[in-house]
Specification:
The protein is mainly alpha-helical. The protein is built from 3 helices and 2 strands. The chain has one domain. A hairpin with a 2-residue loop joins strand 1 and strand 2. The relative contact order is 0.10.
């Protein structure tokens, strides 16, 4: 072990960058690009909450 804590979120983002670099914009996930790339199979659970605001 190297004493560093494992950051699963950062690790997952890096893996996504390897698999689908086209869904990133300015080093952030562009959710619309992600959805258009992979279709309607992606379900944004909190999307309903944002529409209520």
């Amino acid at each position: 072990m190297d004493g560093k804590s494992f950051d699963t979120k950062e690790d997952l983002i890096n893996k996504l960058k390897e698999i689908a670099p086209q869904v990133f914009n300015e080093n952030k996930i562009d959710w619309e690009k992600l959805k258009s790339t992979y279709g309607d199979e992606i379900n944004f659970v909190d999307e309903r909450c944002r529409n209520r605001v």
